[in-house]
Amino acid sequence: MRGHAERLNGLGTTIFAEMSALAVATGSVNLGQGFPDTDGPDSLLEDAIAAIRAGANQYPPGRGIPALRQAIVDHQQRFYNLTYDPDTEVLVTTGATEAIAAALLAFVEPGDEVIALEPYYDSYAAGIAFAGGRRVPVTLRAPSYRLDLDELRAAVTPRTKVLLINTPHNPTGTVLTDVELRGIRDLAVEHDLVVITDEVYEHLVYDDHRHIPLATYDGMAGRTVSIGSAGKTFSVTGWKIGWVTGSPEVVTAVTTAKQFLTYVSGSPFQPAVANALALGNDYFDTLRGTLASRRDLLANGLQDLGFEVHRPAGTYFITTDIRPLGHTDSIDFCRLLPERTGVVAIPTQVFYDNKEAGRPLVRWAFCKKEELLQEALVRLQKL
Which of 346, 328, 338 is nearest to 380 (CA)? Predict the structure, then answer.
């Protein structure tokens, strides 16, 4: 048999699969993969059970059930003053990962360039490859991880088709500022670019930072594919309920690709998520407060152990520099860590094309119970 398609080169087993297997084999505390170790609100879980019992077990409508599309519209209006039509400007997807893949397949022709902020979530590289595009990284550099707008401008060529923007940003925890977002808007309008914006951590923003969607800026409504998800906000990452909002043309293009990926999914989860999106502000405030205190617990603990800690403004990840502990390569460090200490983390360099920038950086997830974070810090004293 001939070999696999070239576009799969370099997309082997993900680092998450490797590190999660190591965690199981060594009985480690897993601060690698970004999923919570507690379930979302009881009302959400009960609503899904009720939907299964009520017969919501067959194919839902292609764009998602009407109640969820309306709830997404209401959410965008409530939090960002963005107005959408639930029938023509919303699409429910199998998580944000599918939304990203479908958006790239919808807008990227073979040979088109896609600019992505690195370090980037690994599905971005895969989605760009599947679409036949070429990835052009613009690096957010430690320790501030700010976007250099001159560097972004210099990356744009006549072949650039898409800006793939993630804010709040995984894995650095950066929340893009108004100045940075205006700079992105100016470039997109000037060069007639499509902007795919991954906003799954929109509610996980701490201190005085706030998330501003790119779609709120002048000139962006017709060229922005905005992507959200229930997984991070409601601690149901396994439900895989995401969504796209945008102009009718944008949403139709993404739907055309999406319908041939999973067709539809998550029938009984959709009404449950619709109800959850309407939860009161106290839910969202409590979520933020809880995660901010866990961030501080882990950040302070890692700092006390000698790591250089980059405290995030958003998401549920902390990045550390391992050089103060005498290590230089994060992949070697993370492979040794479970055996030596019984803790698993993720080497951030796997999210970079610019390997040198990421070599000494390690990502830790703090979306875990406090006692688990404390246990991890005790174990890490073996370093």
Answer: 338
Task: Say which residue the tokens 């080497």 belong to.
Answer: 347
The answer for residues whose C-beta is within 8 angstroms of residue 118's C-beta and 6 or more apart is: 137, 138, 139, 140, 351, 352, 353, 354, 357, 358
What is the share, in percent, of the chain residues with pLDDT greater than 90? 94
Half-sphere exposure of 50 (CA within 13 A, CB side): 11
Backbone angles phi, psi at 105, to 5 degrees: -65, -30
Contact partners, residue 30, CB within 8 Å, separation at least 6: 19, 20, 23, 344
Give the per-residue pLDDT at 11: 81
Note whether 336 and 327 are within 8 A (CB).
Answer: no
Contact 20, 229 (CB under 8 A): no
The set of residues, in sequence order, having a beta carbon less than 8 Å from that of 172 and lying 6+ positions away, is 119, 140, 142, 145, 310, 312, 317, 319
* Identity of the amino acid at 336: L
Record the pTM.
Answer: 0.96
CA 18 to chain centre: 20
Alpha helices, DSSP H only, in 121-228?
122-130, 149-155, 178-191
